[in-house]
Design a protein that fits this description.
Largest sheet: 5 strands, antiparallel
Low-confidence stretches: none
Order of helices and strands: HEEEEEH
Number of helices: 2
Shape: rod-shaped
Number of strands: 5
Distance between the termini: 104 Å
Structural class: alpha+beta
Oligomer: single chain
Mean pLDDT: 82
């Protein structure tokens, strides 16, 4: 009888140790799933952010190619639809603000084109202008939104400079 009682006590202790181990392994697995879910969210947020930056940069590149003399502020902010993954659906809507002239200075003359009496000319009639372009890209499906700014330098003739908003 005494052996049976001792055996019963040992199996009860083994059962308690087994339950403690089962609970600790369960808690370990739950925390592992929680951590992996958090990492997945962080990675997907970075992907959406990078896509939004790429969409804003694509819109800025389209804006850089416009004639800066013919900028009409009434046409801004301009909305440009971007299809990042090329599946014929609009992924990002990008709003581009009117390009802002930051600075304009007289351009130096081209020394290689000057000779003889014209070699001491220091200024030309062209202007070096610095413009800032700001674009806000937003994805309606994910809520990802980013603002990108880009500076661009353009050389304008004197007549273009006078017609521009600079």
């Amino acid at each position: 009888m005494r052996n049976q009682h001792t055996l019963s006590r040992q199996s009860g202790a083994t059962l308690v140790v087994g339950l403690i181990m089962l609970v600790s392994i369960t808690l370990l697995m739950i925390s592992a799933f929680s951590l992996s879910g958090g990492n997945l969210k962080a990675v997907s947020n970075m992907q959406f952010r990078n896509e939004a930056i790429a969409a804003a940069n694509m819109a800025i590149e389209q804006t850089i190619n416009i004639n800066f003399v013919a900028i009409d502020p009434a046409n801004y902010p301009e909305t440009i639809n971007i299809d990042i993954d090329q599946n014929n659906t609009i992924d990002y809507v990008v709003r581009v603000k009117v390009p802002l002239c930051i600075r304009a200075t007289l351009a130096p003359s081209n020394p290689s084109a000057l000779s003889g009496i014209n070699s001491n000319v220091t200024n030309s009639s062209d202007y070096l202008t610095l413009w800032e372009i700001e674009a806000t890209a937003q994805n309606q499906a994910t809520g990802a939104s980013v603002v990108a700014k880009q500076g661009i330098s353009k050389q304008l003739t004197q007549s273009e400079y006078l017609l521009s908003a600079c």
